[in-house]
Amino acid sequence: MTSKICTRPVIGTILVVIILLVIVVLNDSSRRHPISFRIYYDKIDAMILCCMSNYTMNIVEASFFEKEDVEYLHKNNSQVVGYLSLVEIGHWNTPLINDLHEEDYLVNASHEKMKSLSKTNYLGDLSSPHFSEILFTYLESRILDKGMDGVFFDTLDWIDYYADDARIYEKLTSGYKAFLIELRQRYPDIIVIQNRGFESYKKFSHDYIDGILWENFKSPYIEADTKKIQTLKEFDRSTKLNRTNVFVISFENEVENRKTAKTLNWNFLFSQMDNRYSEWDIVVR
Fold it and tell me: What predicted TM-score, i.e. pTM, was given to this entire model?
């Protein structure tokens, strides 16, 4: 009898403590001061490098950088995060393509290699151990060996696109999760940001990443879309609970989109759509 009487207040106290901790985490995340960031995937020169130092974070194509360039940005208190495509295999990425085996490509039910919607890039099979190891090799040689602060994973939308295809969806989701687990075992302290892939974030990747980019963000408040507003609120709660930094880029309706991002304490960038990542001197703010 004594143990039961004593247990109830303890359980109540634990529940109160847990609730308070959750509130503290949410409040701390909501107060996080937004940072300035820029995404640029082309060649750099002294002028561009100098301009990059004005941003808190730069997401870049690491093959255009030398270690000295990264050191320069670090001296100016600017973080550098290198681009790495996880699902699409860029047709321009000849060295990586030459390292791949046939089993590294995603294939359909007829065992034909699958391509992106643009039909320019093949899709990689994240469940292939060899493909994963190749990705780690390029993460190390192109990004981390140059002293960059972390990695930006692109083309993860493909995982969500195949949610209705059980076979492919399982290969991609299980492969991505295994990749993230291995990534954190090898590099527990690097910055990891993923581009979109909202279902993957919701189901598992929130445990392993530091940030998520919402590319082509369109505030649902503009059209008063109640369903999308609810989805936005749920996403915001999840990112704050998991202490995930949210980066958003909008290509239209700057005032409305910026207002929503500011209200949520998200990191916001407005950019022109054309040549948005391949030219430095464009409209960004």
Answer: 0.88
**DSSP letter, residue 140:** I
- For residue 213, what are its two tokens? 């980019």
**69 has pLDDT over 80:** yes
Name the fold adopted by 34-270. Answer: TIM Barrel (3.20.20)
Please give the order of strands across the beta sheet that includes 37-40.
37-40, 57-60, 79-85, 150-154, 191-195, 211-215, 245-250, 267-270
Residue 86 per-residue DSSP state: S
Cross-strand bridge partners of residue 269: 249
Nearest to 123 by CA among 154, 81, 79: 154
Q: How confident is the model at residue 32 (pLDDT cuts 50, 70, 90)?
A: low
Q: Where do runs of H (alpha helix) occur along the chain?
A: 2-30, 46-52, 67-75, 94-99, 129-138, 157-161, 166-186, 198-203, 226-241, 254-263
Bridge partner list, 105: 124
Give the CA dihedral 120, 121, 123, 128, nearest 10 degrees: 150
All structural domains of the chain with their residue ranges: 1-31, 34-270
Q: pLDDT per residue over 239-262, tens digit each?
A: 999 999 999 999 999 999 999 999
Q: What is the pLDDT of residues 106-152, one digit of tens each?
A: 999 999 999 998 889 999 999 999 999 999 999 999 999 999 999 99
**Rounded Cα gap, residues 237 and 171, in angstroms:** 29
CA pair distance 97, 135, nearest whole angstrom = 11
